[in-house]
Amino acid sequence: MFRKILGAAAIAVAANSPVFAEDGAIIVQSTTSTANSGLYDHILPIFEGKTGIKANVVAVGTGQAIRNAQNCDGDVLLVHAKPAEEKFVADGYGTGRTDLMYNDFIIVGPAEDPAGVTGMTDAQAALKKIAGEGALFASRGDDSGTHKKEVSLWKDAGVDPDAGSGQWYRETGSGMGATLNAGIGMGAYVMTDRATWISFANKQDYEIAVEGDEDLFNQYGVIPVNPDKCPSVNVEAANAFSGWLLSPEGQAAIAEYKVDGQQLFFPNAPSN
Amino acid sequence: MHSIGESIALAFQLVLTGSADLIEIVGLSLQVSLSATGFALLIGLPLGALVAISRFPGRNVVLAVMNALMGLPPVVVGLLVYLQLSRSGPLGFLGLLYTPTAMIIAQTILIAPIVAALSRQILEDLHCEYAEQFRSLCLNPWQSMEALLWDARFSLLTVALAGFGRAVAEVGAVIIVGGNIDHLTRVMTTSIALETSKGDLALALAIGMVLLTIALTVNAAVQMMRTTAARQAYV
């Protein structure tokens, strides 16, 4: 009996022979908003149909995506933190960074608006007011693109939120969706990218409080990983993927993706 | 708020419509976790049996370590395996990161200590009963281990189930080494995490219910197997 079970287990393992990474496939180290909003579900089938290249997306925060790519665990990087991306390229990990598309960040809050910031279009002033009122604010706290942006906004606003860490400033150390869930659960303001917000299903009574500030611009970039640093990179397929994203066809595919009739990402690759 | 009822309805809908995606995710979950359980048994049972019948200096330390490793945090196992399998790690040349194989490796490491520690306890208790008999038959250690494993086989099934339960329910390790890639490394727990992060709590809970049902089915199947086998053995 015992031997039979072991035998059966061994056969089961052998029959389900391990799946190795396929040759015509690439790993895209990506920020979460592009995956959670469903953008990849829309554009990847078009790309795969055209080229036969399978793009496997690993969606993590921008900080982790960059570190994974530095460990050579990806062929293409698609994130949204321009200074970090430029450093990635300058350090030799990427062959070059190109603007891909943009949308914007927003600050969402509960309908009762405890800090009285709803309708404001000045992000720095709104953050100052939230801090001044001691209203709850849930931060990603995970070195993601959104978190980097949020930290820079606090800095520009001249507020040190870490002084209120654990009190009104709540760092969840989690992804965008988890932070929204937590923030909404505790009635805190949350800064999020618009794409994640529009496609987010657990909004409850939350509304957009602050939007429309130039400072809230959210630029996404695409970078093929440098084969000189990472010989394992599937160069041809990686270049095909980033090239297609930046092509008129890829840009059009990005533009036509809508949730609830709203466009989530606005292509802005340099045209040439 | 979402009601549990909504999720139950959604769970039924998911199962009854038999969506291809769900079948794929369930299939991969079972493939990964059953494989990991198989490997963990291959490693853990001999180890547990060996420690059960052996007496050596520092044995208590070994026991303490074995028992402590049962509490390995999945995310730590995931990180350790990631660092080995990463392209920049020592085993990176294998190209295993972000594959089901990597997930099986991580879960095997996670549950092998559970199998070893629990089987050690069961076999040691049994050995207390048998020790004198073994000595009178002049069995060598290998024969003793084999006899113990065979006689404890029904109790050891529960050990296998404990290991499988831990493997199929964990998310921390597989999401790091598997990457939760759609149609490649997405399993039930990583789907639940993903749907939660999309704010689709009803769907997340519904997948959780499907997972629970599958775990229940596996347990029931093993229970039936055990009852049938035990009846035949004692007739």
Quick one: CATH class of chain B? Mainly Alpha
Helical residues, percent of chain B: over 70%
Q: Considering the protein shown, what is the CATH homologous superfamily of the largest domain in chain A?
A: Periplasmic binding protein-like II
Q: Give unreliable regions of chain A as ranges.
A: 1-22
Could you report the average pLDDT of chain A, rounded to the nearest whole number? 91
The helix fraction of chain A, in percent, is 40-55%
Strand content of chain B: under 5%
What do you see in this structure?
- The complex is a heterodimer of chains A (272) and B (235).
- By secondary structure, chain A is an alpha/beta fold.
- Chain A has 2 domains: 2-102 and 219-267, D-Maltodextrin-Binding Protein, domain 2 (3-Layer(aba) Sandwich); 104-216, Periplasmic binding protein-like II (D-Maltodextrin-Binding Protein, domain 2, 3-Layer(aba) Sandwich), CATH 3.40.190.
- Helices cover 41% and strands 21% of the residues of chain A.
- Chain A has 11 helices and 12 strands.
- In chain A, β5, α7 and β6 form a beta-alpha-beta unit.
- In chain A, α6 (123-133) packs across α7 and α10 (235-246) packs across α11 (248-255).
- The longest helix of chain A has 14 residues, at 2-15.
- Chain A starts with a helix and ends in a 5-residue tail after the last strand.
- Chain B is an all-alpha fold and 235 residues long.
- In chain B, α2 (20-53) packs across α6, α2 (20-53) packs across α7 and α3 packs antiparallel against α5 (100-136).
- The mean pLDDT of chain B is 92.
- Classes of the chains: A alpha/beta (272), B mainly alpha (235).
Annotation keywords:
heterodimer; A: D-Maltodextrin-Binding Protein, domain 2; D-Maltodextrin-Binding Protein, domain 2; 11 helices; 12 strands; B: 235 residues; 80% helix
